[in-house]
């Protein structure tokens, strides 16, 4: 399980779970805000420092998935063509 805090709002965090789900929490509330199920295990995640409503998940299917916090029903961008499982991911300070 991985947990990352949103850099612009420390009350919002994203967690990847063993059951292949991504859950968004708002610490001001008592329950999860959103939950999505992915087909494969998520290995890592990172929030974009310039556009903190976007975060990217590194997956063991050799893809990275970028999601928008406001519309989590499907990935905004799928980054393909990695050689193996994506085990670590981060944004540069410029958001790239």
Major sheet summary line: 4 strands, antiparallel
Remind me, CATH topology? Thrombin, subunit H
Low-confidence stretches: none
> Any idea what the radius of gyration is?
13 Å
Helix tally? 0
Instruction: Work out the number of β strands.
Output: 8
Sheet with most strands: strand arrangement: 1-2-3-4
Q: In the CATH hierarchy, what is the architecture at level 2?
A: Beta Barrel
- Name the CATH class: Mainly Beta
**Gross morphology:** globular
Task: Count up the domains.
Answer: 1
The chain-level structural class is mainly beta
Report the span from N to C terminus.
25 Å
User: Could you state the order of secondary-structure elements as H and E?
Assistant: EEEEEEEE
Helical fraction:
under 10%
Q: Indicate the mean pLDDT.
A: 91
> Which range does the strand content fall in?
35-45%
Quick rundown:
Helix content is 0%, strand content 43%.
Could you characterize the architecture of this molecule?
This protein has 96 residues and is mainly beta. The chain has one domain: Thrombin, subunit H, CATH 2.40.10. 0% of the residues lie in helices and 43% in strands. The chain is built from no helices and eight strands. The chain has strands at residues 2-5, 12-16, 21-26, 32-37, 42-47, 54-59, 64-68, 77-79. The strands form two sheets. The chain has a four-stranded antiparallel sheet, with no helix packed on it. Strand 1 (2-5) and strand 2 (12-16) form a beta hairpin. It is globular and about 40 Å long. It starts with a strand and ends in a 17-residue tail after the last strand. The mean pLDDT is 91.
């Amino acid at each position: 399980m991985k947990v990352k805090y949103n850099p612009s709002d420390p009350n919002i965090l994203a967690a990847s779970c063993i059951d292949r789900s991504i859950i968004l929490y708002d610490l001001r509330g008592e329950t999860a805000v959103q939950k999505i199920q992915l087909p494969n295990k998520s290995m890592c995640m990172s929030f974009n420092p310039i556009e903190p409503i976007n975060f990217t998940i590194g997956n063991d299917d050799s893809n990275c998935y970028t999601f928008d916090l406001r519309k989590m029903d499907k990935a905004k961008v799928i980054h393909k063509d990695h050689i193996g499982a994506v085990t670590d991911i981060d944004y540069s300070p410029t958001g790239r």
